[in-house]
Amino acid sequence: MRLRSLQLLFALVIGSFSVPTLYPQTIEANNSQSPQTITSTDILSIAISHTGGSPPDDHDWWIAVVTSLPSPNDIYYYDGTSWTTEFSVAYQQPLTEINSLELLNGSGVPPGNYVFYFGIDSIANGVLDTDSLVYDSISVVSEAATAANEQNCGNSRQIFSVDPLPSDAYSQIDPLGATNPSGHTFPTVHTYMMLQDSSQAREVNAPADITISNISVVENLTAGGTDYSLNFAPCPEVTGYFDHLSAVNETLQNQLTGAGNCQQYVAGTDEYRFCCHSVSVEVAAGTLLGSAGGGMGQNSAALDFGLRDSRSTPLWYANLERLVNSDQLHVVCPYDYYVPGPVKAGLVAKFGVARQDLPICGSVAHDVADTAQGRWYLLGSSDFGEADHLALVPSNK
């Protein structure tokens, strides 16, 4: 039997009932369980995991991809060693422990829509038995690649390759959307790389070839201490920032001439002076930018990492006029922009400590029209600080 029936049977299962979690298996694309959009020149990695279980009898393990390509390339099966258009069961074995077994890694995926399936049925007969089938799936869209140049980023999201911190420097990543009134009344538009020991200075490195466009100096006028923020861009439409560096390297420190563009604000019970310095400093991937932690700054417990992509679909807010600036419309997850591989896998794993729900990186836009959920603003107050306002939003954990 050619497994167009696989597509049909999976579709019937989806349409008829919710799939029970009998076997704790997952299939991931590019180290993520969320749907992926790639370009035809990007790397696509497909991996499966299974946490073991019982009974110890052999099971049929099915791995397949349904595509939008013309027949016979509309369905491929994994036969245990390679992908084929011939109907095949991948494995016949007990429910063994598998930790991220990679089945595909490469570029050149033709433009189109792809749904990858990892299914297990309890009857080891080489027949797709839907009565006992349990499966996980993930969708991938491949788009024709547009090359990057000095004027634009192209359409790839595989930009970063270097962890900003040594892996042992931080214990977890807290996702987008944290709230911590009154300084962060609204969901935060950055992630937190939580330091293992904030009393120890740890190096902060450039995640890619970037141009630093702004250095901000943030002084706590109440409690003392100075932190630094770096705004950077790997390409024109993608802009990122690091907050709460305790020090910057000598090259960047030498850029801090003049008073800068300054303003003061209150966050919580403390008053701050925020001074921006416009610069243009090109650095290579992996370059030491400065440090986080070490007691030299404001003793922050985390390095903040935020990212914007103006190519992304704008987020929806009920009252656009009250946004502090338009970059809140294009908040994205920084770790989605890493090349698949060990660095990205290590970063994504750090979310597991803080959050299990998808999207694993959290979200920031929670306004719901004609309901109380979302952001509420005190009329007549400043929009720069958040202390006067209110948010009725879900937890990010």
**Main sheet makeup:** 9 strands, antiparallel
* Class based on secondary structure composition and strand pairing: mainly beta
The number of distinct structural domains comes to 2
Q: Could you name the ranges where pLDDT drops below 50 across 5 or more consecutive residues? A: 1-9, 11-21
CATH architecture descriptor name of the largest domain: Distorted Sandwich
Q: How would you describe this structure to a colleague?
A:
By secondary structure, this protein is mainly beta. It folds into two domains: 4-143, Immunoglobulin-like; 167-392, Glucose Permease (Domain IIA). It contains three helices and 24 strands. The strands form five sheets. Strands 11, 12, 14, 15, 16, 18, 19, 21 and 22 form a nine-stranded antiparallel beta sheet that branches. Strand 15 (226-235) and strand 16 (238-245) form a beta hairpin. The longest helix is centred in the first third of the chain and has 13 residues, at 4-16. The protein is elongated.
